[in-house]
Amino acid sequence: MLHKLRSYGFNARIFEKAPHIGGTWYWNKYPGARCDTESLQYSYQFSEELQQEWEWSEKYATQPEILKYLKHVEKKFKLSESITLNRTITDIIYDGKAGLYKIRSNHSEEYYSKFCILASGCLSVPIKPNIMGVENFTGEIFQTSKWPDKNIDFNNKNVAIIGTGSSGVHVIPIIAEYCKKLFVLQRTPNYAVPAHNRKLSDEYVKKFKDNYKVNREKAKKLVSGFLTHYNSASALEVNDSELKREYDKRWEAGGLAFLAAFCDITYNKSANKTATDYIESKIKEIVEDQEIAKLLTPNSIVGCKRLVIDSNYYATYNRKNVALIDINQEPIKALTEKTLKLKNIELDIDTLILSTGFDAMTGAINNINIVGENSKTLKDKWSSGPSSYLGLMVNGFPNLFTITGPGSPSVLTNMIPTIEQHVDWIAECIRYMKKRSYYSIEANLEAERSWVKFNEDSARNTLRYECKSWYLGSNVKDKQRIFLPFVGGLPAYIKKCEEIVKNSYEGFRFSN
Ligand code: NA7
User: Fold this and answer.
1) Cα(357) to centroid of ligand 1, in Å?
2) What residues form DSSP beta bridges with 334?
3) Contact present, 377 and 353 (Cβ < 8 Å)
4) Other CB atoms within 10 A of residue 127 CB
5) CA-angle at 362, arms to 257 and 170, nearest 5°
6) Domains defined for the chain, CATH in brackets
7) Which one, 64, 298, 437, 449, has the greatest CB density within 10 A?
8) How many whole angstroms from 295 Cα to the centroid of ligand 1?
9) Are strands 140-143 and 351-354 parallel, antiparallel or unpaired?
10) Residue to mutate, 162, 187, 193, ligand 1, most ligand atoms under 8 Å from C-beta
């Protein structure tokens, strides 16, 4: 965004809470942290030179490699001079008379800006459980989402981990290799399919890079925004051997493309059951102890929660030093100096790891006191659930944009191209305003309401409401249940954004 605005001749500055750039890829530096989207696609496309010169080493990049890439981008485009690190923005207050936002930081600084763009992340506010007696614990507690910048020695340590989402599934097999004993405290099992991560071959990279532009264009026409083969056949129309052949192929290839094995997996319960039956048979096959296999089996809808991409997760439960504990049977009671007390068991532990998720999509925005027209706060406006036109702007908050805000495809798609689409849209909008001497832009209430309703109705036509997930806000106490990302896929969303622009920014109003 900064690079784009600068290239259009605007003044811009980034404020970043962390002491380092990188966002998600700075904070989540736990062992095993890796992207679940292929590295050649999980990267910027705004510069052909950048995408040609950067060399990804693996199919799924590790956190350190992505952070290195982001630092390279920062250096290449000389961004650091316009980035202020270690700044938490506390208030963003609209002054209608001046037509400016007053932006305050935790360093008691005040800045004034005509436009304000929130790029505060979809998964950037971690949540953690309240465990009684936590202050008495003499061991160490780590959160995957706030992992310290140092090597942690797990040798000879008894470790407990809470949370078996993507982060937990990534970190568990790695720590299990080093620690004395690993207790995995599971509340809900997740479906995981293998990553089959590998070094990228020179031939593969060359072929992909030779066709980068074409590949990117093709990806934009797919619902997820990443290039993969979407099978147009229904899971209910093929016979058992065809079904198995397709799932075997997807399992062997690895990755999120498993959900594209058939066109109706995410829409039709019976079709979905063919996929869950397949994964469940794999769990039974991999995990030796069938009682543990049963505990790891979700008996749910695959793709309702985020599908987890794993490396060696299920096989880790065949290790003698790993124990799986169902906290529905054995709820966590308290921490003492050296133990984690469950209902009937006491675990002697040195280290506790929390991988308990995030207040997704609205957490970071709601952490800022954002005040719009008529002194109305965004938090108040969103008290019965977030509403936004396209996940880009909110009525009552002129000149305030969100990148991948609630109501945008964001987390259901390949994040980087999705972010770039927002960046382009916002930059073009500001340039359009400048050319016409418009001072402000604001989303119309009606357009906003109908977009929220459209997304909510669309989500209810899928299987997304069949489970509790952070997509719905159900992992945060008292958070309104609304389907947060746009479910209609990237092509439909891009088309809508383009049509709006063609129709002189339909659904927005400008003023001068
Ligand atoms: P997730 O996917 O939200 O997973 C969090 C996990 O923590 C999940 O298994 C939760 O169980 C569990 N959890 C949360 N709170 C508790 C408490 N209080 N007690 C026990 N267990 C708890 O977060 P991740 O960081 O793994 O992944 C987030 C995204 O990052 C992921 O989807 C990818 O897009 C990358 P629950 O299912 O709520 O019962």
Assistant:
1) 4
2) 341
3) no
4) 18
5) 40
6) 2-17+86-125+360-511 (3.50.50.60), 126-190+321-357 (3.50.50.60)
7) 298
8) 17
9) parallel
10) 187
Instruction: Give yes or no for a contact between 51 and 209, defined as CB atoms under 8 angstroms apart.
Output: yes
Give the pLDDT confidence score for residue 401 in this predicted structure.
Answer: 98
Q: Do 346 and 155 contact (CB within 8 A), yes or no? A: no
Ligand 1 centroid to 123 CA: how many Å?
Answer: 11
Q: What does the block give as tokens for 215?
A: 């590949």
| Model pLDDT, residue 332 | 98
Three state DSSP letters for 297-340: CCCCCCCCCCCEEECCHHHHCCCCCEEEEECCCCCEEEECCCEE
Spell out the alpha helix ranges (H) of 334-410: 363-366, 378-381
Instruction: Write out pLDDT tens, residues 272-311.
Output: 999 999 999 999 999 999 999 999 999 999 999 999 999 9
At 448 the pLDDT is 98
- Tell me what pLDDT residue 263 has: 97
Extract the residue ranges of the chain whose pLDDT is less than 50. Answer: none
- Binding site membership of 168 for ligand 1 (Cβ less than 6 Å): yes
Helix, strand, coil share of the chain (percent; to 5)? 35, 20, 45
Residue 72's pLDDT is 98
pTM over 0.70: yes
Token pair recorded at residue 456: 């909510």
Residue 284 C-alpha from the chain's centroid: 29
